[in-house]
Amino acid sequence: MSKRFENKTALVTGASRGIGAAVAKALAAEGAHVILIARSVGGLEEVDDAIQSAGGSATLVPLDLLETDAIDGLAAPLLERFKKLDMLVAAAGTLGKLTPAPQYSPKLWEDVFKLNVHANWRLLRALDPLLRASDAGRAVFVTASAAREHKLYWSGYAASKAALESLVLTYAGEVAKTNLKVNLIDPGPTATKLRLSAFPGEDQSTLPTPEQKTDLFLDALSSEFNQNGTLIT
Predict the structure, then answer these.
(1) Residue 144 in contact with residue 94, Cβ under 8 Å?
(2) Is residue 9 helix, strand or coil?
(3) Which of 6, 45, 1 is nearest to 28 (CA)?
């Protein structure tokens, strides 16, 4: 039986844990070759071990996305090896700190925007030609309801996710007449380390696991999914 993403190539950021890791494993299980990007080498190796044990394949790219200039270097080796990129899953993100807006550390504020917004723009800038080269390129970016709810003390995370949403939806409009489809996914409350840092007293056993959220992503990444510029929840 053929697999859903046989002969497809996917790049996943934040692939060492949480939603990124779960989506990467699910894509590999469905036949995709997955390019795993994260800062943690150990975390990437654990995900790679799980993928290989299940019969899948992956390429590890240890990369700190806060070093945004380094993102530009992704395009050339990917073009040389794969010629195209079928799927981009931008799952890397950071909460920053829950604090009144005037008390935010300027350095932390800049890092939150650098990872949640600037790194994703650099990914689009670097990978746009590769995604357009696919006959059914798909790109999804992880967002959160905080972008639209204006929660008190969430200013850095909320503002950065609002900026990300604006960037992604604008880009989606710009590629509307191509084979590339670009969307946002808000997975909702999920048992992740980021969620735990925001709600340290929460019982995460009451929340869906990242693995239980992967269908949202796989559906949006399939060649049959033709929506563009939408928020998927």
Answers:
(1) no
(2) strand
(3) 6
Q: Which two tokens stand for residue 169?
A: 């939806």
CA dihedral (70, 75, 76, 81) in degrees, to 10, reads 130
Exposure letters 100-120 (e unless 16+ CB within 10 A, then b):
eeeebeeeebebbbbbbbbbb
CA 36 to centroid of chain Cα atoms: 11
- Residue pointed to by tokens 């609002």: 162
Tell me if 1 is assigned to some domain: no
The CATH number of residue 26's host domain is: 3.40.50.720
Provide the number of structural domains found in the chain: 1
CA distance 112 to 167: 16
Tell me if 2 is assigned to some domain.
no
CA nearest neighbour of 158 among 169, 149, 171, 167: 149
pLDDT, tens digit only, all 233 positions of the chain: 789 999 999 999 999 999 999 999 999 999 999 999 999 999 999 999 999 999 999 999 999 999 999 999 999 999 999 999 999 999 999 999 999 999 999 999 999 999 999 999 999 999 999 999 999 999 999 999 999 999 999 999 999 999 999 999 999 999 999 999 999 999 999 999 999 999 999 999 999 999 999 999 999 999 999 999 999 99
Q: Does the active-site annotation cover 157? A: yes
Please count the residues of the chain: 233
